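anyone else get weird line breaks when pasting these?? whatever heres mine. first is seq + tokens for prot A
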Amino acid sequence: MENEDGRRLRSVVSYVKRGGRMTVGQQRAWEEHWPRLGRTVSELPPGPLDFTAWFGREAPVMLEIGSGMGETTSQLAAAAPELNYVAAEVYDPGLGQLMLRAEKLGVENLRLLHGDAVVLLTEHVEPDSLHGVRLFFPDPWPKKKHHKRRIVQPSFVALVASRLAPGGTFHMATDWENYAEQMLEVCSAEPALRNRYDGWAPRPDWRPVTKFEQRAEVEGRVSHDLIFEKP
């Protein structure tokens, strides 16, 4: 991203670029499905991404940021065939595993983007175009000195709000209490959004409980959902 003088702007990276070798199955999924289902953010042509052409149909676009190993994403996409479901993730094996899960479930309405979601939103998503954005259990950066690396900051929330269509929703979930409070504070301060509930949202029964969330519960952490919408 550049400013008006053409100088490169530095942004805080909220994720760790993890390594990890893909399994045989994940590698096969990349070879068989990536050419049709996936694109790399850094290799996209300038300008907005044409989701209608990519999916081959016009439908509301749901963007999930940080799909991890695809456990939740594959089920959510399968449960909402009326949506053009887009998953953005930086972890290669996670995208491979998501493609395997989608293949097993027969999911057809899913596309994958490999790379930084902030760059994607800034450079390749049109304003007022997304039906919704989901951010489930982002990296909590639990140490206080690392809180500035959390993705939910005022500038990010403003960016998400600008890309939501009127009536669109920004749905977050985290099992870290102080991160949930930060999400609530930051999103409540964004004038383009309003909280659909008075504080925390009820945990939706359609959001699958992952092993990650189950572990958090065992460790005594309570998950919080927040749903903000663009009037």
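and prot B, same format (seq, then tokens)
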Amino acid sequence: MRYFTVFLFILLTHSAIGQTDTLVTKIQGTVVHSQTKLPMNNVHVINTTKVRGTITDGNGFFELAAKANDTLLFSYLGFETIKVKVTNDWIKNKTSKISLTEKAYALEEVIISKYNLTGYVEVDTKLIPVSESDYRYSISGLDAGYEAGSKSPSAVTKVLGAIFNPADFLYNAFGKRPKQMRKLKEMKKDDTIRELLATKFDRETLAALLEIDKDDIPLILQNCNYSQYFIKSANDLQILEAISSCYEEYKILKKNK
């Protein structure tokens, strides 16, 4: 009986610890400038584990649902993006202070091209240069097609290869990343994340959210036959939509294989 009591105590203690580690709660914090120590408002705070986000208020304050070992990403234009792990001490104390550091830029020359837009689509589309070499192939049964990037024979061969060997073509992009790709729908639902990605062109935030290397993003888009022009010029939200669209195609093709 004594041994049974000891065993039961250990079991309940282990269960309680496990529940504490997985307990989702509201954590709070304040984001400040690393040098001035002043609070920073409108800083994007993203829980990359739960794929949920918020922004700081005028006092640099934020509140977000999280649990121990979740990763929070802090992003603000002109400042270094950082990732912070949620600890049990943070959850216990309820609040924490996060410092952001300004980026160091070495900018020699900036050239701004001006377009005198009229507001009429038919006119403005002729004023803004468009790459004539970029185009997409449509595939019956799919909402979107494949952007070949050029009209060269090699581009056509690549796209046709994608159509007739869809599993081999897209497996390299998504087959080894099922966990990360399942986050795509959640990312698209969160307005805070969408707002942040619409202002980004560096792929750092998107890579952090998908838990992949930043250099893998161009490779994924190349495997999905997006042109180099699109890969280089699109903002992170457009990149997210492109990867999501291609992933949906991959699931359809894989299902019908």
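btw re prot B: The longest helix spans residues 2-22. Confidence is low (pLDDT under 50) at residues 14-21, 138-142.
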